[in-house]
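for the recovery benchmark. tokens below, seq after
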């Protein structure tokens, strides 16, 4: 029997994709938002495609705000953008 592939929905484009192909954005217990590269940290997670357009769409459609049920400041989006740059550079 084939293994079931875990799918997650991108908060930017809304597409369902294999969770290993996506970035996990995490809200920790103290309310901090960060990128979870390992996918194993504790906290509430939302998934985003690895394309920069999806991060822009999530910013526009407030996808992360809906997932985390809290408002997200521009600084957090800029930090996520920088973290995306670091990952793309590797």
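predicted aa per position
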């Amino acid at each position: 029997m084939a293994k079931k592939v875990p799918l997650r929905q991108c908060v930017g484009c809304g597409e369902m994709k294999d969770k290993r192909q996506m970035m996990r954005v995490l809200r920790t217990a103290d309310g901090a938002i960060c990128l979870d590269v390992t996918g194993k940290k504790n906290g509430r997670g939302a998934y985003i495609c690895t394309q920069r357009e999806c991060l822009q769409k999530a910013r526009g459609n407030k996808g992360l705000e809906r997932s985390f049920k809290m408002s997200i400041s521009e600084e957090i989006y800029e930090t996520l953008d920088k973290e995306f740059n670091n990952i793309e550079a590797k």
